[in-house]
């Protein structure tokens, strides 16, 4: 019988603030402000922010960038025992990557009503066909994460107005 996993939530807000700082870096570059950090054993092993515009890479979501960096850092494409902190609920592309990388837990801030698949548009991570189970928790620093996105899009709209 598999032992229950013990979850330490004491550092969730700290690591989400790290992800928020990365989101702000992306916003400065004109990218949608989403940031992500991958943590294992209390240490950040991967960091990323959205950069599909600047890299001309539609797969360069914050989660993808952080997971790629972590896999390189630990020299393994599997990342068991890790927690991904991301400021916005993952999309289907990132959810698939999270499962394939064997990330143990995802903690997100704001929900993504249009494309989020952790809870908003479905519950991808609870699908029976998946060969890996990911624990998912939403709402950590949700207001701060949501505000960063809202302010970014508000500023973008104001720039377009004559």
Low-pLDDT segments, ≥5 res: none
Shape, per Cα inertia axes: globular
Strand order of the largest sheet: 2-1-3-4-5
Mean pLDDT: 94
Main β-sheet description: 5 strands, mixed
Helix/strand class: alpha/beta
Radius of gyration: 15 Å
Give the beta-strand count: 5
Distance between the termini: 64 Å
DSSP helical segment count: 5
- Order of SSEs, N→C? HEEHHEHEEH
| Helix fraction by DSSP (H/I, runs of at least 4) | 25-40%
Instruction: Report strand %.
Output: 15-25%
Summarize the structure.
This protein is of the alpha/beta class and 162 residues long.
Would you give an account of this structure?
Strands 2-1-3-4-5 form a five-stranded mixed sheet. The protein has five helices and five strands, in the order H-E-E-H-H-E-H-E-E-H. Helix 1 (12-28) runs parallel beside helix 5. Helix content is 38%, strand content 19%. The protein has helices spanning 12-28, 52-55, 62-74, 92-100, 142-160; strands at residues 35-40, 43-49, 82-88, 105-110, 135-138. It is globular and about 50 Å long. It is α/β, with parallel strands linked by helices and 162 residues long. A hairpin with a 2-residue loop joins strand 1 (35-40) and strand 2 (43-49).
């Amino acid at each position: 019988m598999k032992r229950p996993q013990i979850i330490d939530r004491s550092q969730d807000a700290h690591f989400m603030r790290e992800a928020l700082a990365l989101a702000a870096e992306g916003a400065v570059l004109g990218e949608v402000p989403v940031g992500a950090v991958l943590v294992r054993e209390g240490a950040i092993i991967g960091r990323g922010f959205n950069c599909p515009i600047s890299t001309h890479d539609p797969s360069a979501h914050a989660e993808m960038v952080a997971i790629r960096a972590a896999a390189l850092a630990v020299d393994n494409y599997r990342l068991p025992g890790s927690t991904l902190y991301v400021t916005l609920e993952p999309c289907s592309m990132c959810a698939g990557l999270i499962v394939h990388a064997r990330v143990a837990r995802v903690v997100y801030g704001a929900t993504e009503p249009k494309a989020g698949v952790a809870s908003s548009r479905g519950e991808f991570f609870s699908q029976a066909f998946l060969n890996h189970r990911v624990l998912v928790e939403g709402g950590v620093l949700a207001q701060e994460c949501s505000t960063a996105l809202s302010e970014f899009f508000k500023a973008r709209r104001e720039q377009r107005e004559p």
